[in-house]
Amino acid sequence: MLLNKITNISKLCGLYLNKLKISTSATAFREVEDRRLMLRSMPALDEGTAGEKAIEIDSHLYEKSGLFPDLDTPNKLFNGIPYKELPIFNVRVSKNNTILTMSDSKGVIKLTRSCGIEGFKNTKKGTNIAAQATAISIASRALEKGFKTVRVRVRGLGPGRMSAIKGLQMAGLNIVSITDSTRVSWNPPRPRKQRKL
Amino acid sequence: MRHASFIARTVFVQNNDVEAACRLLNRILGREEILDQFRRTRFFEKPFQFRRRINFEKCKAIYNEDMDRKIQFVLRKNRLDPFPGCS
């Protein structure tokens, strides 16, 4: 009798289990179905170019103020050194890394530091914090060597663009000028194909 | 074409205000569409994308021109004191 009942119950359980389905409500509660839609709804990545879209009334203010180089700029003295003989800080910014080199006025490299050398690995290399730390470390090395007044040349877009320059200044370097040397062409060779999202 | 380095695209830092100099440089680069071109040439732009972009830019330019004209029309004035009560 008892044994019979147990077998009955186990049969019932088996029936019940056959009808069970695993269902989740995750798809219903998800806000966007499509991955592309989701990507589009995300905020745009910071490309490290503050002030790009800024609108200010300028023009005539800049003419007098000496913001831009002119004919006698190369011979102008900064801290006793003519502008053309100031050491150069090259900042190479990309999406995944920031490389800083210091060279003299002829382009001979004196110091090199990158976020990877600094100890930031993988995705951490391409952050503004890494760029700033790297800039501070290379700038302190430059100060040890006795370079105080420098000009900065930036190439590329990325999160480290502003913060690297800021780091150089924070370490105590006297930055005379900032130059952009991003390589831009209006008739470039065919670039690589677009990334799939 | 290559430009003389440290002459072209150069901004001097004044009163040790690096951030302002950076902003000015970025603004100039943005306005001259140098950064846009840089971003556009990272990956190949397919012909259909090129066509769509050019058509969009054309439409935008026409709209902006018209809108500027309308704004100028609304703001037009011919008074001795152009802004009465504001002096």
What does this structure look like?
By secondary structure, chain A is an alpha/beta fold. Chain A has a domain at 77-180: Ribosomal protein S11/S14 (Nucleotidyltransferase, domain 5, 2-Layer Sandwich), CATH 3.30.420.80. Helix content of chain A is 32%, strand content 18%. In chain A, strands 5-4-3-6-7 form a five-stranded mixed β-sheet, covered by helices on one side. In chain A, a hairpin with a 5-residue loop joins strand 4 and strand 5 (109-114). In chain A, helix 5 packs parallel to helix 6. The longest helix of chain A has 18 residues, at 2-19. Chain A is elongated and about 105 Å long. Chain B is mainly alpha-helical. Chain B folds into two domains: 1-43, no CATH class; 44-76. Chain B has helices spanning 18-31, 34-40, 47-75, and one strand spanning 10-12. The radius of gyration of chain B is 21 Å and the shape is flat. The model of chain B has no long low-confidence stretch (mean pLDDT 89). Strand 7 of chain A pairs antiparallel with strand 1 (10-12) of chain B, so a sheet runs across the interface. Chain A: One of its GO terms (biological process) is translation. Chain A: It comes from Aquatica leii. Chain A: Keywords: Ribonucleoprotein, Ribosomal protein. Chain A: This is Ribosomal protein S11.
Largest interface (C-beta under 8 Å): A-B, 44 and 31 residues
The major β-sheet of chain A equals: 5 strands, mixed
Q: Helices and strands of chain A, in N-to-C order? A: HHHHEEEEEHEHE
The helix-strand sequence of chain B is EHHH
* Global structural class of chain A: alpha/beta
- Give the tally of β-strands of chain B: 1
Distance between the termini of chain B: 51 Å
**Tally of distinct domains of chain B:** 2
Residue-averaged pLDDT of chain B: 89
Strand-residue fraction of chain A? Answer: 15-25%
Which outline of chain B best applies? flat
Rg of Cα set of chain B: 21 Å
Low-confidence stretches of chain B: none
Rg over CA atoms of chain A = 30 Å
Indicate the multimeric state: heterodimer
Structural class of chain B: mainly alpha
What's the CATH architecture name of the domain at 77-180 in chain A?
2-Layer Sandwich
Please give the largest β-sheet of chain B.
none
